Amino acid sequence: MSCYEWEKGSLKIPAGDWKSLKDSIREAYNQWIEVAYQEDLKTCTSFPATKNQKPTKRAKANTRTHEYSFNDGVIIFSDDSTKTVTWIVNENNHAVNYAWESFIGKAFRLALSRISWTSKTGGYFTGNNEYNTDNQNFGGGSNYITVRYGGIGERARESRTKLTTTASISDNDLCSSCSFCDYKPGEESSCDVDFRNALFDLDNYIVECGDYNKFKTMPICNE
After folding, report:
1. Domain that holds residue 87
2. What is the domain count for the chain?
3. Does the predicted TM-score (pTM) go above 0.90?
4. Rounded distance between C-alpha atoms, residue 8 and residue 85, angstroms
5. Beta bridge mates, 147
6. Environment class of residue 206 by beta-carbon count within 10 Å: exposed (0-12), middle (13-18) or buried (19+)?
7. Looking at beta carbons, which pairs linking 25-29 to residues 24 or more positions away fall under 8 Å?
């Protein structure tokens, strides 16, 4: 099934990780355009009508490059004074999933996981998809945090969860291993998406949920 979705946001990068992040994305981008060119070249030589034609090759990124467009996504680096990186995935069918699973998306996720975040750095991405916007339950349909990093991201989560429903969660609940759940054994736990699609069994355990996700990404769309 289709799933039209989008995601965007900005992250404040620690000074010590700024150069390495830019280097990682530039290297990944240049590898990606080379692979894409070789694949296009192979396609051209496979057909008689295009055998003598050469595909257009994208220009390689250099140290002055600040914007990287790929598949359905764009990564934009600010100047060195603000040290902010912006991630944009415009609305399209499975666009967020395709962007993160692309060569550049995987490199971006890996590079972000290696950053030593501090209390004054980080941030969060927000997003939505066509199934969530159709949610007619109380509080449903609004945009939500999809990815968060560092102290800025954590404070955004804390601010968000002050408004969310809480529930008593145990190890037997599916929520205990879900990245959207702020799991607190023995206390009231909160959910970034308000337990909106949770299914309880007869013993009041949450056994199924349409938003269950071990990784902090968009709530899973129906396939």
Report:
1. 4-163
2. 2
3. no
4. 11
5. 125
6. buried
7. 25/68, 25/75, 25/77, 25/104, 25/107, 25/108, 25/111, 26/61, 26/62, 26/63, 26/65, 26/68, 27/107, 28/103, 28/104, 28/107, 28/108, 29/61, 29/65, 29/68, 29/70, 29/104
Residue 153 parent element (H or E)? helix 150-161
Quick: pLDDT tens for 89-138: 999 999 999 999 999 999 999 999 999 999 999 999 999 888 878 765 54
Do residues 22 and 61 both lie within one domain? Answer: yes
Phi, psi of 169 (to 5 degrees): -110, 140
Q: Write the CA distances from 49 to 44, 45, 53, 54, 57, integer angstroms.
A: 8, 9, 9, 12, 20
Q: How many residues does the chain have?
A: 223
